[in-house]
Amino acid sequence: MRTQSSFGVLGDLQIPLALGLLRLSTQGRPDEAEAIKVIHHALDRGIRVLDLADVYALDEKDLHYSERLARKALDAWQGPREQVRLLTKAGLARPRGKWRPNARPKRLRSSVEGSLKALGVEQLFMLLLHVNDPSVAFEDSLSELAKLQKEGKVKHLGLCNVSVTEVRQAQRHFEVQALQCELSVMSRKSSKAGLVALAKQMGIVFLAHRPLGGYAKVDKLLKNRAMKPLATKYKVPPHEVALATLLDLPGPILPLVGATRTASLDSSLHALTLKLDDEDRARREKISFEPTADALQELAPPVDPATLPQLEPGAGPSDSPEVVIVMGIQGAGKSSKVDAYTSAGYERLNRDLLGGKLADLLPKLDALLAAGKNRVVLDNTYPTRLSRAGVIRTAHRHRVPVRCIHLATPANEALINVSTRMIERYGKLPGGDELAALAKQDPNLPPPLALAKYSQTFEAPDLDEGFSAVDTVEFVRRPYTNDYTNKGLLLDVDGTLRVTKSGEIYPRTPDDVVLLPNRREVLRQWIDRGYQLFFISNQSGVASKKLSYADAEACLVRTKELLDLPVKELLFCPHKAFPLGCFCRKPLPGWGVYLMHKYKLAKEHLVMVGDMDSDEAFAEAIGARYFDAEAFFS
C-alpha cells in the first residue's frame, strides 16, 4: 500500500486522494456552509488536491460555482493554503442543466477567463480539457490551450476522457501533465486501454474519476464477488476495499472521491489503512487492469517512416508494398481515384461497402498484411489524425509504408457533387426520412450534416503522423459541355417577390399573397435580355405542419399569377430548417444544381435575387451573381 507517492507536478502527497467538488456543486448539492465544512474536513485530514471545473454548477447561469466554492473554503481555512493544488477543467457546457461538449477555442478562452476570476488568481495551476469535442477539430482545441499557456494564464495542462493516440497528439502542442479518466473495479476501460500505463511511462498523475463506479453504482459494490471476500476479511464496507484496490495498483493513480458528507469522506480515508497482500490480489485476478494487446501496441514507440521502404511523392499504383489512404470530404471523388489502384491489383477496404465502424477495418487490414497482401487501398473520409492513426500503426507493425492521398475538395464543391449524384440517380433531391432510407442502400448519399461535421473537425494530413508520403490533389471541376449557354434568373419568394396581407412571414392561403412593387416591370427587362425565371423558396412551414405541401404550392402559383410573367419552375424546400436534413434548402446548392443541369444554364449567366444571408450563400455555392432584392427592384 502506498502511503506517500509522487504525482508529477503535484509533488509528493502524504494522502494519495483528491476531493472532487462535482457533487458539492451540481444538482442536489448541499448548502454552501455544509459544502465548505466537507472541504475543510478533507483539508484538515491531509487531502491537498481539489478537483474543479467551470461546469460543476447547475447550468450556464451558474458557471464556475465549484471554483467560487473552493476559493471561499480556502479563504476561511487556517491551514497551509500554499500546499493545496486546484485543478480545473474546460470544454463542456451546461445548457438547461445538460452536459454538452463545447471545446471551441472561443469557449475555452472564455472559460479560462471565468476560472481566473472565480478563483481570484492570475494563473491557473492546472487546466484539463474536459473532452475532445466531436464537433470541433481537436487540433483547434489543443492549439488554443497551448496559446493560453504561452500567455501565462495556465501553468500546467492535462486531458480528460482521451485515448493514448489523443494524448500523443496533444503532446505536439504542449507538455501533458495529467490524465483524468473513469477508473474503478467496475469500470477498467481506461486502464485496459493503456492510459494508466501511459501516465506511468510519462511520469504524470492519473486522476481516477468515479473510483467507486459513480454515485448511482456504489450499491453494486455490495454484490461484487471480488470485493465481498475482501470486505469480510478486513471487516470494512466493500467500497473501502474497492478504493484500496485502486491505491494498490502500480502507477501514479490519484482517486477523486466525491463526498458530500464528512462521514463518507472519513470512510474513503480509512481505505488508506488497508494493506492488501498477494492473497488478496490473487482473489481479484479476474478483475484485470492490464492493458490489452492492442493497447500495448499503441503504447509502443512509433515506427520511424525513414526505416521503412521509401515512397516516391505523387507516384501512382506500383508493384511495391504500400498502404494507401485516400481521404477527403464526402463527395470528393474518392471512389474514382481508388479505381486506378484496384485495377492495379490493390485490395480495397471501405467502410461503406463492408459495414461497421472505421475501427472495424483495422483487423481486416492486419489480416491482409499478415497474409502477404501488402498493397492495400482504403478510401474513407479520415478527417482527423485520430481516425488515421490506427491504419498507420497497423501498417507499420508489418513494416509497410503508408501513403496519404488527400483530395482537397472544398465543401461547396462536394455539396454540388452530392447534389448532382442524387439528381442523376433519383431525378430529385430527397430529404429527411426519404434521404435516410435511400442512404441505407446507397452509401454515397451522405446527409448534409455529415459534410458539415467533416469540415468542422478536419485536420490536414502531415508527414509527422507517420506517413511516408502525403499527396494533395487540388479539386478541378470539369467544364460543362458547350451547350450550357442559357441564362437563368433565380428568385427567392418571401420578402423578395411577395409579402402577406395578414402580416405573417409567409402566406398560408393564396388569397394572403401580395406582390411587392416594381417586380413585374424589372423582371420583364431581364426576360427581354434572354433570362428564364425560376422560383426557389424555403418553406419549412410544411415540415412543421403550419401549412400543407399543397398550400405552399398554391401560394407559389398565386405569386406567379400576380406576377403575370413566364416562370419556368416553382421550386421549394418543404423540409425542416433544423436540423438540416436535405440538399434543397438554401443555402445548400441542390435546387441550383438541378436547374443548371435541366435547363443548361451557364454559370456566367446565372443570377440570384434574395433578401437573406441564406440566399447570398446559396448564390455563392453555385457560382451565381447575387443581388439584394431591395437594390435589384428599386
Write the layout of secondary structure elements.
Layout: E1 5-6, E2 12-13, E3 18-20, H1 32-44, E4 49-51, H2 65-75, E5 85-90, E6 92-93, E7 100-101, H3 105-119, E8 124-129, H4 138-150, E9 154-160, H5 164-171, E10 176-182, H6 189-192, H7 195-202, E11 205-209, H8 227-234, H9 238-248, E12 253-257, H10 262-270, H11 278-283, H12 293-299, E13 322-328, H13 334-343, E14 347-349, H14 351-354, H15 361-370, E15 375-379, H16 385-397, E16 402-408, H17 411-426, H18 432-441, H19 448-457, E17 469-474, E18 486-491, E19 498-500, E20 513-515, H20 519-528, E21 531-538, H21 549-563, E22 567-573, H22 590-598, E23 601-610, H23 613-622, E24 625-628, H24 629-633
Parallel strand pairs: 3-4, 3-12, 4-5, 5-8, 8-9, 9-10, 10-11, 11-12, 13-15, 13-16, 14-15, 16-17, 18-21, 18-23, 21-22, 23-24
Antiparallel strand pairs: 1-2, 6-7, 19-20
